[in-house]
């Protein structure tokens, strides 16, 4: 059995100047496909709330949701590093709560590390989780769990104060023991400097090409939702259209009686039929 990539492997990629690929996956199938493609890190993100569970935000996602979907993702891959999100209000209340829930994700879900959002304010939680033996990835910039406080999904760190704040935060996360940081929706110029200022990998999403790696949502890259196309994403395939067309053809063939045909059916001898039914 192949060993999964460790946080040391991921950090070595930055040291070697190699870009890190990271993508979300929420079930066995998406995890299997990401593994086949050679993705280094799979994120079981609370973004499942929107793209899988149908919520408007990530806020309703529960620990049970993350654990269940992490278990699916683990079964679908062998070598990718699996990091799971600590969902909203699973770590904010206290350090003890944060350690307990991080432990659940690793013990019950099977992930190798956990991710949480926020800067200086969550450093006590990060230290305690790391001290418990669980690697932690940070998340700065646009932090979706604080969408109501941010006033929506907006680009962050555009002012001098904002840039100073995120610079301070990323340094504090590194000191607290985070092995890497996701940087979401910040100007390219800011992300470029931050990636150089810390030793840990900086994984961007909507943060330009100068980060140490990139993370994207599985469904966005594959064009599964044709009415949603984030500026920071690139559609590599219009699978949503392909699936819709395939299912439409199926409906049409069933309606017309064309499916299934004789070759797609199973048979027994006429003798058996006559003896049973006369």
Task: Please mark out the parts with pLDDT under 50 across 5 or more consecutive residues, or reply none.
Answer: none
Helix and strand composition category: alpha/beta
Helix content range: 40-55%
CATH architecture of the largest domain: Alpha-Beta Barrel
CATH topology of the largest domain: TIM Barrel
Percentage beta strand: 5-15%
Largest sheet: 8 strands, parallel, barrel
Radius of gyration: 23 Å
Please write the string of helix (H) and strand (E) elements. Answer: HEHEHHEHEHEHHEHEEHHH
Could you name the CATH class of the largest domain? Answer: Alpha Beta
Using the alpha-carbon principal axes, give the shape: elongated
**C-alpha end-to-end distance:** 56 Å
């Amino acid at each position: 059995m192949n060993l999964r990539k460790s946080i040391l492997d991921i950090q070595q990629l930055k040291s070697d100047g190699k870009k890190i690929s990271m993508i979300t996956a929420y079930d066995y199938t998406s995890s299997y496909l990401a593994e086949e493609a050679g993705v280094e890190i799979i994120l079981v993100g609370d973004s499942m709330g929107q793209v899988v569970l149908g919520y408007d935000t990530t806020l309703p996602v529960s620990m049970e949701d993350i654990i269940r979907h992490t278990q699916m993702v683990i079964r679908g891959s062998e070598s990718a590093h699996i990091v799971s999100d600590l969902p909203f209000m699973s770590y904010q209340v206290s350090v003890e709560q944060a350690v307990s829930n991080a432990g659940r994700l690793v013990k019950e879900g099977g992930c190798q590390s956990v991710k949480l959002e926020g800067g200086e304010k969550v450093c006590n939680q990060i230290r305690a989780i790391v001290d418990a033996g669980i690697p932690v990835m940070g998340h700065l910039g646009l932090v979706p769990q604080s969408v109501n406080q941010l006033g929506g999904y907006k680009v962050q760190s555009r002012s001098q104060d904002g840039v100073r704040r995120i610079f301070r935060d990323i340094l504090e996360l590194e000191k607290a023991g985070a092995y890497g940081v996701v940087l979401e929706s910040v100007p390219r110029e800011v992300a470029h400097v931050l990636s150089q200022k810390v030793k840990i990998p900086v994984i961007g999403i909507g943060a330009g090409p100068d980060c140490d790696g990139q993370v994207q949502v599985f469904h966005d890259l594959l064009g599964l939702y044709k009415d949603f196309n984030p500026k920071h994403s690139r559609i590599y395939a219009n699978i949503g259209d392909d699936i819709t067309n395939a299912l439409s053809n199926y409906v049409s063939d069933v309606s017309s009686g064309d499916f299934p045909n004789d070759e797609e059916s199973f048979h027994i001898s006429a003798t058996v039929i006559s003896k049973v039914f006369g």
